[in-house]
Structure formats: structure tokens, C-alpha cells
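Field notebook, page 469. I keep forgetting to write these up properly, so this time I am using the form the group agreed on. The chain and the ligand, pyridoxal-5'-phosphate, are recorded exactly as supplied. Prediction of the bound pose follows.
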Amino acid sequence: MQAKELLRGLPAVDEVLQADEIQAAMAKSGRSIIVNCIREAIGEIRKQILAGQPVGHDGLKAQVIARTLFIARQKEKYNLRPVLNATGIILHTNLGRAVLSAKAKEAINRVAGSYNNLELDLATGERGSRYSHVVDLLKVLTGCEDALVVNNNAAAVLLTLGTLAKGKEVIVSRGQLVEIGGSFRVPEVMAASSAQLVEVGTTNKTYLKDYASAITENTAVLLKVHTSNYRVIGFTHETSTAELVALGKERGIPVVEDLGSGFLVNLESYGITGEPNVQELVRQGVDVVTFSGDKLLGGPQAGIIVGRKEYVSLMKKNPLTRALRVDKLTMSALEATLREYLDSDRVLQDNPTLRMLTTPAEQLKKEAEKMKKLLQKELPGVEVAVEQGYSQAGGGSLPTTDIPTYLVTLHSEAISEDKVAEKLRQGEPAVLVRIAQGKIILDVRTILPGEEELLVEACSQAFKSVQEG
Ligand SMILES: *Cc1c(COP(=O)(O)O)cnc(C)c1O
């Protein structure tokens, strides 16, 4: 049939509006939204006809109705929505990094829909500071004299250097000129803060004497950057924090450490080593420490600055602070997250990041076996197995730590694993998985309590829909 003739068969918007299903959709979503969906649906089918793609002449109206309802359902979905993370990467920057604890969620809920005392001192009735809600907690937890919270750790570094070293020199080891995903590069942040970078040492070795001999009357900061997302191994020498602090004291220059991940616990007994914690650096005398709220701390996105009062006070007065400030939702979640650290045992269970980091592999094996049974029932033609593997902390943290885990693997000769992964990603809820050696790999470590059934259901649907073509 000719395209022209087909186009003539397309229904008018008013005609489609009369259909019962469309009337029902309109009652739910509103007339103007549905009218737009109808126009879009007609437009799509028109394009299809003009491109010579097959559309049946009969039932063009039914096709428009079906397409309209599909578009309306798509539009109903929020753009930013929950997904299931079966990758085993605990802090996945693309998936929103740290999952908040129940208490942090409650805290957000409490302040979100009501007025609150964000900047009001209820005792005196005077204007208060939004930072006051967490400063005492940070003092107790880290031993610092004062603290400040900004939008993220990149902002914390920018503010710290922009306050302490604007127009002056900052000495950094060449081994620590890091790039963190999403274009945080130490030299670039330095330039943005109008501090002048003075590189010392080499990629693999930087000695105390390298820092000492680079100091001039223009030196404002000795900066140490934690190599969060990589390690220099082999023939190496890194100047220790203690050495740098001693040098700073002797020469009267503040020492700043950009820690990246903010560990407030010690998980060496869980096999997690090589990540200094904040309180240890403060105890060693580092003048200013900066770290993220949503990496190993397991809280909301934020940049936390802890350190000596004289330096933090200067930062609080910097106009940049106003531009980098956090809102009430972040503050409430951060306060709740930090409060949980007051009980150093319970926090390992209550903070999802710490819980996932420390769940023993043996426990995950049981979860994986349970999931295997469910999947075998759902997917008779698919090989389902439980295998040993490794999870990762992710988020540019603990780069050399592989965390032993158990994986559920799915394989079928007849079915493309790439197609299944695509279906999973596009499903509702979306599921993110790993693929290796022709298999779909589910790491149960990052499956949250209550998500197991959703995951099984999603896998079952994805395999079936690929099978059916
Ligand atoms: C992650 C990281 C940053 C950036 O922190 P954001 O909170 O993502 O802005 C900066 N420095 C180091 C060392 C990091 O690990």
C-alpha cells in the first residue's frame, strides 16, 4: 500500500481521545499530558510510514492508542529513580555512591516538609550557623578543633587552598597529582583556587628533603593528597604524614591532607587495610583534613573540612563558602550519619556502606545459594551457579583491596548475555550487572535487604524477553 494512503488512515487526535483506554489514562494523568502523548504517538507512526517501515493498515488507531499508552507510562517514570546494583561495587559513582542509612533517610524526611532551625539558635533566638549541627559531632569523632561542610570534597579542597594559599605556593609530591573520576585533578583545582602548584620529588619517590628545599617565603601550604584510586607500588618512598607535620611545625606552614574517603573506623580486622582514618591524621597534627561525605563515610554528598580553629575560621569567612554551602537535606542526613558513628559497633550494621564492606563472604554464600534456587525455578533452561569472586569498594576508594564475595552466575548458550544485560538495564527497576566469560554475574554483596525478589523477577523477565526475541 502507498504511504500516502496509509497516512490518510492515521486517526485524528480527537478520535483517539474517545477511546476508553485513553479516557482512563486521562483520568489518571490529566488531559493535556495525554493529548501530547497522542500527538507524539501519531508523529512516530507517521515517521515509520514515511520511512517505509511496515505498519498494518488495519488497526492504525489501535496502534496509536497502544503507542500513546506506552509513551504515557514512560513519561510517568521519574528520570532519577532507584536501580538495583548487582555489580558488587559498593560506592558506584554512576549509581549515586553511598546508600543512606535508615536514620539518615528519616532525618531528611523530618526536615524536608517542614520549617526547621537550619540557621536559628533556638536557645537564644539569634541567627545560628548551619554548620553548628555537625561541628560538635565532628569534634568528638575526629578530635578536631573546628569543622565546616561544603558541597563535595572537590569544593572542600578548593575552599581550603583558596583560603590558605590564594596567590601563594602549595608544595605537593609529584606522586600525588591525582585525577579522581569526573575530572577532579589536583593541578586544576589548584589553579581554580589561585594557588600556585610547586611539584616536588618524582612519581615514585618523594623525600622530606624535597619538600624542605622547595619552601620559600611564598609557601603557604604543604599538601598531601591521598592516592585514593591508585597506589604507587614497588620502588617507592612517600613522605609520611608525621614527617610532613614536623616540617610544617618547624617552618610555620600549615599541612593540609586531602584524604578523599573519610574513614572514621578501623576495619583492619575485616581485612580492609591501607586507608588512614580521619582521627588518626588529626591526632598526628595535620592542620586541615578534607574528605567526602559519600565515600567510605557512607553519608550524603558533601565535603567535610576538619582542622585547627584558626584555619577553619578563615574559611568560614571566605565568600566562596557561601557559594559552596550545603542545604538542609544534606545537613540532616549528615548529622544522622555522623550520630550513628557514636556507637562504633552498631554503625557497622546500620551504615549500609560499612555493612556491605564488612559482610562476611560466608554469609553472602548463603544469600547466593538462596537466589540460585529461586532463579533455577524461574529459568529452567539457564545454567545458574554460585561462584567465588571479588567485590570492590569503588568510588575511588581502596583500589587495591579485593573483597572476597560470592556471585550468582547465569548462562545460556542460546541467549546473548549482552542482550540480557541491556534488558536488565532498561527494565523497571533497572538492574546493573557484570558480564564476564559469557555469563551474567550478580554480586549479592550490593543487593540491599528486600531487593532479592525484585532481582530474581527482573532476571527472569529479562531472560524470557530475550528468549522470545
Ligand atoms: C574522591 C576524591 C576527591 C573528590 O571528592 P568529591 O567528594 O567526589 O568531590 C578529591 N580528592 C581525593 C583524594 C578523592 O579521593
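OBSERVATIONS:
- The CA atoms of residues 294 and 301 lie 5 Å apart.
- Residues 152-154, 178, 180, 184, 225-226, 228, 258, 260-261, 292, 303, 396 surround pyridoxal-5'-phosphate (CB under 6 Å).
FOLLOW-UP: compare against the apo run.
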